[in-house]
């Protein structure tokens, strides 16, 4: 995972509870030593919750930071006063991953919000490319991203009224 992030030009901080570092399997100890040597490891003190440390590090990294985790963080957002803000932050920051042997596939968040939004132009609703987008009405604009299978934006503007068409 560390190498996959570094190949993408990212600086890495691995946050682990001290007990995981202390109990590292013999085959993993050279890796832990290398992380320490490169100042890439933060071992949380006994009695501390490592989740709060990696959350704090991700917030401190700012808008360009990534939090690589498949943790859904449900136990964290349920206790927050502003759940919506946390969920929006999570959608912009968390990078999901899959591992297959030595291969790591990272899935960074998209550069736009996947939530429906409303403004003066109408509703802006994310839609899957090829999921009925071709059957959209004339009042719908679909903006496609270059990556196949990526989300597109579906902008549903109010249809012009008969009265406004007669005035033209």
Helix and strand sequence:
HEHHEHEHHEEEEEEH
Total beta strand runs: 9
Total number of domains: 2
Largest sheet: 4 strands, antiparallel
Low-confidence runs: 130-148, 162-166
Radius of gyration: 22 Å
Principal-axes geometry comes out as globular
Helix proportion of residues, in percent? 25-40%
- Proportion of residues in β-strands: 25-35%
Rounded average pLDDT = 76
CATH architecture of the largest domain: 3-Layer(aba) Sandwich
The main sheet orders its strands as 6-7-9-8
CATH C-level name of the largest domain: Alpha Beta
* CATH topology tier name of the largest domain: Rossmann fold
Counting DSSP H or I runs of 4 or more residues, the number of helices is 7
Structural class computed from helices and strand pairing: alpha/beta
- Could you give the distance between the termini? 60 Å
């Amino acid at each position: 995972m560390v190498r996959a992030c570094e190949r993408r030009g990212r600086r890495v901080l691995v946050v682990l509870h001290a007990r995981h570092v202390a109990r590292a399997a013999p085959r993993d100890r050279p890796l832990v030593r290398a992380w320490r040597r490169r100042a890439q490891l933060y071992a949380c003190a006994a009695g501390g919750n490592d989740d709060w440390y990696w959350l704090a590090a991700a917030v401190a990294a700012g808008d360009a930071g990534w939090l690589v985790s498949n943790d859904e963080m449900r136990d964290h957002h349920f206790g927050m006063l502003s759940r919506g803000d946390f969920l929006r932050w999570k959608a912009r920051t968390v990078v999901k991953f899959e591992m297959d042997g030595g291969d790591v596939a990272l899935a960074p968040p998209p550069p736009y919000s996947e939530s429906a939004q409303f403004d003066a132009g109408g509703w802006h609703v994310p839609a899957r490319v090829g999921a009925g987008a071709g059957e959209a009405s004339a009042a719908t604009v679909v903006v496609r991203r270059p990556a196949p299978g990526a989300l597109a934006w579906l902008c549903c503007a109010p249809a012009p009224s008969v009265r406004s068409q007669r005035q033209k």
